[in-house]
Amino acid sequence: MESEIKIAVIGLGYVGLPLARLFSTKYKTVGFDMNQTRVDALMAGHDATLEVSDELLQSAIAGGLVCTSNIEGICDCNFYVVAVPTPVDENHNPDLTPLYGASTTVGEVISKGDIVVYESTVYPGVTEDECIPVVEKVSGLKYNMDFFAGYSPERINPGDKEHTVEKIKKVTSGSTPDIAQIVNEVYASVIIAGTHLAPSIKVAEAAKVIENSQRDINIAFVNELSKIFNRIGIDTQEVLEAASTKWNFLPFKPGLVGGHCIGVDPYYLAQCAQRHGYNPEIILAGRRMNDGMGEYVANQVIKLMLKKGIQVVDSHILIFGFPFKENCPDVRNTKVIDIYRALKEYDVNITVYDPWANLEIAQREYGIEVVNTLPTAKADAVVLAVAHKEFVNLDFSSFVLPNHIVFDVKGVLYKEVIEGRL
């Protein structure tokens, strides 16, 4: 099988690149991305997302991995893997535009007997009802007669150097029993943690979308607890620490829920439910709770400032962290921007400091300036929004004025050095 299969990975982002690198250890592999700048950087041996180390990437390229933006470079492949983003629009409706584009690309190169496997997170039915018809139309081939499909949901955790792609169990599926076995064997040959062969593509799609929806709902629950305990006057972190002594208590923590998965996938599941005539109350309630946490944090900071007699208008607030999670440059769907925008309504001066974030992307996507050098001016309030490893042991007293506020969104600082936290 290894000598017969040549893999093309469509989309070389946080999901596609690590997967292409891994596949290249066993198969002839080509990575395809429309962003020529991205392709050039990868072929030069550097991944700006930091998901694949320069050493690993350069080793993969030396071993035969090719990255290209030229569609002719993937014409002779026979196992296509689609790993493009699946965002939502401003109204939280699923935006399948990247999937349609990738499916068009596959349709232009796919041949008889080939397999296309989708990894992008979707609701049940998207692969076969939305993507495959595009491939059929462009290629002129018939599904499950001339070409075949599979679905293997991505489980990449950006910034996590312990749970890398080969160490996370992979769900696989195929459009026929025989194709399912082939898809499973290809993934099993490189995934150390093993695979789980789902009985159908729709089951595999559903499994992925509920994984992140479940986490979203659990985080929404503890976010609501945080609001309740704040009113009571007890510390949420201390309550959770006490509750965690029970063996089956789920150790979720309150916080911001952003990124390309947990903050997005529930909307895909919700729309799927609504299309089938069911209004998903719990899923959408969780989304409303989590989407409102940035504004809640901002309001708590302002209240604490007022209680200390700090003049809010024209005050200086320093926000530590901008990506959606720690130790990662990924700013997609970051909820730190919600804190920033809510604070701006009070006519305050804000500095956002982050040593990880891509400053150009932050400016382009959100219209704000993020700095990557520690500010020297002291602030009236500091908000620890992202728990980068560089922040955890910082002496925050050196960044604030004597009468100050330190608000710990992540719950990682000692209680003695903060005035508020979730």
What does this structure look like?
With about 425 residues, this protein is an alpha/beta fold. It contains 14 helices and 14 strands. The strands form 3 sheets. Strands 3-2-1-4-5-6 form a 6-stranded parallel β-sheet, sandwiched between helices. Helix content is about 40%, strand content about 15%.
Mean pLDDT level: 94
Provide the structure class: alpha/beta
Low-confidence region ranges: none
The CA-CA distance between the termini, in Å, is 52 Å
Q: Could you state the order of secondary-structure elements as H and E?
A: EHEHHEEHEHEEHEHHHHHEHEHEEHEE
DSSP helical segment count: 14
- Report helical residue fraction: 25-40%
Largest sheet: 6 strands, parallel
Q: Which strand order do you get reading across the main beta sheet?
A: 3-2-1-4-5-6
Beta-strand proportion: 5-15%
Radius of gyration over all CA atoms, rounded: 23 Å
Tell me the overall shape: globular
Number-wise, the strands total 14
Name the assembly state: single chain
